[in-house]
Write a structure and sequence with these properties.
Blueprint lengths: L1 H17 L1 H13 L5 H8 L6 E3 L6 E7 L4 H16 L3 E7 L5 H15 L3 H10 L6 H10 L4 H7 L3 H17 L6 E4 L2 E4 L4 H7 L2
Parallel strand pairs: 2-3
Antiparallel strand pairs: 1-3, 2-4, 4-5
Helix pairs in contact: 1-2, 1-9, 5-6, 5-8, 5-9
Length: 206
């Protein structure tokens, strides 16, 4: 608990530097609202544009995945998470950026946040993990066309400092939470590092 309190303080300082308005909105919640568990406080810190999710935000269960689009285990677990989303109306799944494998990982993370600004973040996210074989520019362009994204706006938004800050903050929170790699999960309050089977995920749900 002492570790988490120290982490929250660092998170606030980092968020204040990167995203001052959001930090001001969450100071009281993070320090004084003891009714919220730590994994939900993480979501309080990240701006709305950085939350790529499926399911009701007021769902009884929350699964958070810190992920990288070039992570093989993230790709492996993705259809299992989608299965849970279909089967469980009481569960939301939140995908947070933790691009640690390459510069291309960071590029895709920014691109998904930019797509989220156009309200198509979850669609872009799913499409990236559904690509067969290696992801290349042609496949990426096809995804953008299929989703009918505004390509010009996407290119502008993904280079904005605010988008860069969201990705950096998300990755910072992942590291501070104990993510030694991807995927790393919070299944409600339970932190799980590495790939987790669908049966184990279900066992941790309420």
């Amino acid at each position: 608990m002492r570790y988490f309190k120290k982490l929250i303080l660092v998170v606030i300082m980092s968020a204040f530097i990167c995203l001052p308005v959001k930090a001001e909105m969450t100071l009281n919640e993070l320090f004084f609202d003891e009714s919220k568990p730590f994994h939900l406080k993480i979501l309080d810190v990240i701006p709305e544009e950085g939350i790529v999710q499926i399911g009701d935000k007021n769902a009884k269960n929350t699964i958070i995945e810190f992920m990288d689009y070039f992570c093989g285990y993230c790709k492996k677990v993705h259809p299992e998470l989608m299965q849970i989303a279909i089967e469980r109306e009481d569960t939301r799944i939140v995908f947070l950026q933790h691009p640690i494998l390459s510069e291309s990982s960071k590029l895709l993370a920014n691109m998904v946040i930019a797509a989220n600004i156009q309200n198509k973040g979850i669609d872009f996210h799913n499409a990236l993990f559904e690509v067969e074989g290696n992801l290349n520019n042609a496949k990426l362009k096809q995804i953008i066309e299929n989703l009918e994204l505004n390509d010009a706006k996407l290119n502008i938004d993904m280079t904005k400092e605010s988008v860069n800050n969201i990705v950096r903050l998300s990755s910072f929170l992942a590291n501070g939470s104990g993510a030694r790699g991807t995927p790393t999960f919070f299944v409600n309050e339970e932190l799980v590092v590495g790939y987790i089977s669908i049966d184990r995920i279900k066992a941790l749900l309420k």
